[in-house]
Amino acid sequence: MSAADNGAGERAGSADRALARLRSWCERHAIWLVLALLFALAAALSEAFLRPVYIFNIVRQAAPVGIAAIGVTMVMILGGVDLSVGAVISLSAVLAAVLMDGDPSNIPMALTLTMLAGAALGGVNGVLLAFNRVSPFILTLGMAVVITGITQIYSGGTARGIVAPGFREFFNHRIGGMVPVLALAFVLLSLAGIALQRTTRFGRNLYLIGSNPLAATLSGLPVRRVTIVAYALSGLFGALAGLALLARSGVSSTFAGRGLEFDVLAAVVLGGTTFQGGRGGIGGTVAGVFVLLIAFNLVNIVGLNYNAQLIVKGLIIIAASAAYTYVKRAQ
Amino acid sequence: MRSLFASRYGILAVLAAVLVLASATIPEFRSASNLANVAVQSSALAILAIGQTLVIIAGLIDLSVGMLIGLIVVVTCDVMDGQSAMTAVAIALALGIGAGVGAVNGLLNNILRIHPLILTFGMLSVLQGAVFVYTDRSVGRTSPEFAWLANGDIAGMPFSALLLLVTALAAAGLLHRTRLGRHLFATGGHEEHARRAGINTARVRFWAFTLSGLSAGIAGILVAGRLGTGYPNAGVGYELDAIVAVVLGGTSLAGGRGSIAGTVAAVFVLGIASNALNLLEVSSFTQILIKGLIVVAAILLNQPRRRVPA
User: Fold this and answer.
1) Which of A217, A254, A232 is nearest to A92 (CA)?
2) Can you give B137-203 as a three-state secondary structure string?
3) Interchain contact A139–B (C-beta under 8 A)
4) For every residue of chain A, which 3-state class applies, written as one string?
5) Can you list the positions of beta strands (E) in chain B?
6) Which of B 36-95 lie inside 8 A of A, CB atoms?
7) Which of B7, B266, B232 shows the shortest CA–CA distance to B135?
8) What average pLDDT does the segment A47-75 reach?
9) Is there a contact between B285 and A157 if contact means CB atoms under 8 Å apart?
10) Which residues of B touch A140 (CB under 8 A)?
């Protein structure tokens, strides 16, 4: 009798374990389920979502926010946040256009200096946070105001600079008539970010420091160095996002990136990286970016005007985030 | 101890310093009409920031208030369209829409359990869409009585400043003299501990958001009264200015501590700095930069430290 009970118990135990594994898988990949559902809905509503050209268009559209979100994910795994990224995007777009000054031979110099400027501004955030330990939320908010001021003074408040011929053409060229270079760049940068996060000591340190900063400090991890490098990378990815925006739109407005930090933040949090740090990752963030973007495209296809789209955008952010939280809480 | 003292009273010292510096160096600054002007210009933001202080003390945040002001400005002006008879209706609408949207934020936060930053960011987008679906250009105008609320004075004292004083005293009384106030601090300090101590934290969060919405209603009345017309972009950016003021005032973004006096002082520091720079004819671009540097410097000197870096 007891043997039969044991057998039943074991079977129940292994079933429980399998269920637990399934739930844990669901938890980690909840955002992908949301993305798949949304994509299925989109494809049901419009044939366009099944055409590769349209899909690659979406990837290209996602590039500016998506690239910035890669860097912000890293600082959020660390337990920080970077709200200056929208201002960095604006500054980079203006800076690159001014440095190019309409001359293709200036392009390499313009790109290098823009990336350096982004990394340097991010580095300032990192140094201030590594040595002062104030709230990263508010410090980077303050830095956003500073950077916006610099951009305004530098540009005189209007769109300045001339994008060199060839710059936009290169990034919008479709390889094989299909894949825009900009979309490919976004994919490659995402893969680079995932590799950095998964395979390097720096990536491991991000998670260790984020999940328990005190333990990380006590066990001698280079907390300050990792902090500075993470924020510098966030600035660098912000600059790359600014270049992507310039390549996509060609407009070097001083407010090109205004408000994008919240789109970035929404994508990162949807993707499962929390404000507490220590969990999440760039893969989820990329899925989060596409959830938001497909949602906006869907609204477009249904035929609502831009103002109504804003309402739907807000509702989708709330609903997707709620669905994701529900799946996570279900276990 | 020193840093605790600095984080509690630092902003009052900064306010005194800014006040003395501006009065000593800029003669026009000292005039009664200019000082009244500073008070009038600062009161809407100060009232909004008081609401945000309550939310942040409870460990939450409310990004939706800027667009909420925009919605209130548009709706009240459209409803009044210059008629005195509609003044009371417009005031009731402003307070009702404000508290109502705040209550919706509170309910959604409790039901959906999503991060308040994401929730209120989503709400910001919804409200922005609602404002622009309603109108994409300025509509209606305020009645003379409604405009008086923002621009009038009683024996030389601007009414908006009196409104701010009453709001600040009410909020401070709420925080320090009532059960809800103590529960706001407890919930923001450690939600789980507060819940286990028997505090209905869902109810606390609901009221924090509702009061924040109500503060946007009052601030919206002042903004509409100053503009005189329903400009759809009237509220853009107010939420960030309010958060900046709250944090400059020494309220911890982690929740659990903060003060109304600090927030109001911070609003006046920013208001006086902006007024002084205007009098000195500094360009608006340079002003943005200076404002940012003030914010960063004040944060580095003033925000409560975390124990460990990140």
Assistant:
1) A254
2) CCEEECCHHHHHHHHCEECCEEHHHHHHHHHHHHHHHHHHHCHHHHHHHHHHHCHHHHHHCCCCHHH
3) yes
4) CHHHHHHHHHHHHHHHHHHHHHHHHHHHHHHHHHHHHHHHHHHHHCHHHHCHHHHHHHHHHHHHHHHHHHHHHHHHHCCCCCCCHHHHHHHHHHHHHHHHCCCHHHHHHHHHHHHHHHHHHHHHHHHHHHHHCCCHHHHHHHHHHHHHHHHHHHHCCCCCCCCCCCHHHHHHCEECCCEEHHHHHHHHHHHHHHHHHHHCHHHHHHHHHHHCHHHHHHCCCCHHHHHHHHHHHHHHHHHHHHHHHHHHHCCCCCCCCCCHHHHHHHHHHHCCCCCCCCCCCHHHHHHHHHHHHHHHHHHHHHCCCHHHHHHHHHHHHHHHHHHHHHHHHCC
5) 139-141, 153-154, 157-158, 229-230
6) 63
7) B232
8) 92
9) yes
10) none
Instruction: State yes or no: pLDDT of B176 exceeds 80.
Output: yes
pLDDT digits 0-9 by tens, B2-24: 455 655 677 888 899 999 999 99
Distance, CA of B59 to CA of B121 (rounded, Å): 16
Query: A20 exposed, middle or buried (CB, 10 Å; 0-12, 13-18, 19+)?
Result: exposed
CB proximity under 8 Å: B 131-160 to A: 132-133, 136
Alpha carbon distance B206, B218 (integer Å):
19
Dihedral angle computed from the Cα positions of residues A122, A127, A130 and A133, in that order, rounded to the nearest 10 degrees: -90
What CA–CA distance (Å, rounded) separates A169 from A99?
18
Cα dihedral across residues A134, A138, A140, A142: positive or negative = negative
Q: Cα dist. A113→A92, A99, A141, A236, B20 in Å?
A: 9, 9, 24, 11, 43
CB A211 within 8 A of CB A277: yes
Contacts of B285 in chain A (CB under 8 A): 149, 152-153, 156-157
CA-CA distance, A74 to A282, in Å (whole number)?
8
From chain B residues 89-118, the ones with a CB under 8 A of any chain A CB are: 108, 112-115, 117-118
| CA atoms of A193 and A285, how far apart (whole Å) | 11
The CA-to-CA distance between both ends of chain B, in Å, stands at: 23
Write out chain B residues lying below 8 Å of A322, CB-based.
Answer: 112-114
Query: B230 in helix, strand or coil?
Result: strand
- For tokens 């900009």, name the residue: A182
* Tens digits of residue pLDDT in A227-240: 999 999 999 999 99
Cβ–Cβ under 8 Å, residues A321 and B119: yes
Q: Say whether B43 sits in a helix, a strand or coil.
A: helix
Distance between CA atoms of residues A243 and A117, nearest Å: 12
How far apart are alpha carbons B300 and B308 in whole angstroms? 15
Cα(first)–Cα(last) distance of chain A, in Å? 33
Separation CA B226–CA B244 (nearest Å): 23
ipTM > 0.85 for the complex? no
Q: What is the pTM of this model?
A: 0.81
Residue B228: pLDDT over 90: yes
Query: Distance between CA atoms of B175 and B185, rounded to whole angstroms?
Result: 8
DSSP state of B75: H
> Looking at chain A, which residue has its C-alpha nearest residue B252?
A135
